[in-house]
Amino acid sequence: MKRRRLRTVKTAHIMITVENDQSPIRASRLGFSSFPTFPSLSDKVIPSQFPAMAEASRIFRSTLFPTLSLQLSKPCYKSHVYPSLSLKKAPRPIQCSVSTSETKSTSSNATQEVPWGCDIDSLENAEALQKWLSDSGLPPQKMAIDKVAVGERGLVALKNIRKGEKLLFVPPSLFITADSEWSSPEAGQVLKQYSVPDWPLLATYLISEASSQESSRWCNYISALPRQPYSLLYWTRAELDRYLEASQIRRRAIERVTDVIGTYNDLRLRIFSKYPDIFPEEVFNMETFRWSFGILFSRLVRLPSMDGKVALVPWADMLNHSCEVETFLDYDKSSQGVVFTTDRAYQPGEQVFISYGKKSNGELLLSYGFVPKEGTNPSDSVELPLSLKKSDKCYKEKLEALRKHGLSASQCYPIQITGWPLELMAYAYLAVSPPSMSKQFDEIAAAASNKSTIKKDLRYPDIEEKALQFILDSCESSISKYSKFLQASGSMDLDVTSPKQLNRRVFLKQLAVDLCTSEQRILFRAQYILRRRLRDMRSGELRALRIFDGLRNIFK
């Protein structure tokens, strides 16, 4: 398997930034949520027109399982436990009762490929796809599918393309949405009868159409989709534990796998088992759902100009992501098609890119299965875990204040190369605050929550040094975990003898090394800034003490 190097919100959160810094570390470049999964650390507001490739995870969490609320009580900055699938016919809320042991057993074996689609770098069905699209209403294009250095398959320019030129013009008749017509009308009627939300409905729709083969209108499109999308859904639990132990993405990947399994189990229990002739298990099973959700996570787009409709857009989804472009997909009402406007010129033979949104390297790996080259992603970030100490005399009072605002004793906050959120600093203030500040615990906990609208730019000069030291200690603890993995990675998998298995291990390990290197780099940067601030604070305090002692001697 070839390595896929590149396929290529700010919310109301105020950021602490580092200005005029001459640190030796240079600045760097999807996504639930990244999938935006936590707030962007830049001071730009993400345009609402960014594609749902950048928002797929958030949509998934907010529509797929409506009965479970998003909780920040988990050890993360924004919980990535998706709500549970709710079906209208069920008189009670349906829970995704997937135990850890069930998840392990389900994901411990190597996954099998589905019987449709093609190899991820194959062009065997590209010509048939382009012909079908053209016959189905796609206007003449200035791009064609070809093998590329970045992304394995992509759209390359056939002619000179100007900066500011609109491309694609994919008509709505070629969108796959929750309203698309089923080749098996009975299957569609059953799912509509149970009011299945868009994401699981689309996942089931893809499997149904794929199994219909040539009788499906989408046969040529599905034949050009990868049999095994690049996605952490295809990593086994052992591989996640082995290669992503140091990164918080491991936890999020396990949650995503668990939720996909839970969604399938809910559908199987509530619907498929009641209609086995319409939904036979040999077609609608865990492997086919892993495939369909992998396709949705990596290809579904949200179109703001169509009231936020989510859709698969054939042809447009062949565009790869680049960190160097800021153009995105949306529906153009004047031309009545999905378009994007180039932000640079392209020569014939050059690959044409779009942006999947402002996503960290971890989010891009989670949904799309690639990690950008180190230092090329300005939106890259790493989640820093922080925890209250149980030995704290005010542990119970602080925990109560955190829980009141949807937080827990352990939280993760994003750090970017340019700074960290004020919520992180508020959490650190709370962690080190003495009993004498107990009346302020609630105010500080509220500032530590991204759900609160309270003023977050709190300053407590008396405990600021302790708060910064608390963050530094957590930062250095995380750095040591990354260092341990990176040092051990060279000797991993030396006992593997199967060439196929070795190739897979080498591929996954390299992705993990690239991710951990980029995340550790951000932590090193934060460590440098924190050490410098603490040094300046302590040297300033020392000067003040010397001045005080001098004045005292004079008065004596």
TrEMBL record:
<dbReference type="InterPro" id="IPR046341">
    <property type="entry name" value="SET_dom_sf"/>
</dbReference>
<dbReference type="InterPro" id="IPR001214">
    <property type="entry name" value="SET_dom"/>
</dbReference>
<feature type="domain" description="SET">
    <location>
        <begin position="139"/>
        <end position="357"/>
    </location>
</feature>
<dbReference type="InterPro" id="IPR036464">
    <property type="entry name" value="Rubisco_LSMT_subst-bd_sf"/>
</dbReference>
<protein>
    <recommendedName>
        <fullName>SET domain-containing protein</fullName>
    </recommendedName>
</protein>
<dbReference type="InterPro" id="IPR050600">
    <property type="entry name" value="SETD3_SETD6_MTase"/>
</dbReference>
<dbReference type="Pfam" id="PF00856">
    <property type="entry name" value="SET"/>
</dbReference>
<keyword id="KW-0808">Transferase</keyword>
<dbReference type="InterPro" id="IPR044431">
    <property type="entry name" value="SET_RBCMT"/>
</dbReference>
<keyword id="KW-0489">Methyltransferase</keyword>
<dbReference type="Pfam" id="PF09273">
    <property type="entry name" value="Rubis-subs-bind"/>
</dbReference>
<keyword id="KW-0949">S-adenosyl-L-methionine</keyword>
<dbReference type="GO" id="GO:0032259">
    <property type="term" value="P:methylation"/>
</dbReference>
<dbReference type="GO" id="GO:0016279">
    <property type="term" value="F:protein-lysine N-methyltransferase activity"/>
</dbReference>
<dbReference type="InterPro" id="IPR015353">
    <property type="entry name" value="Rubisco_LSMT_subst-bd"/>
</dbReference>
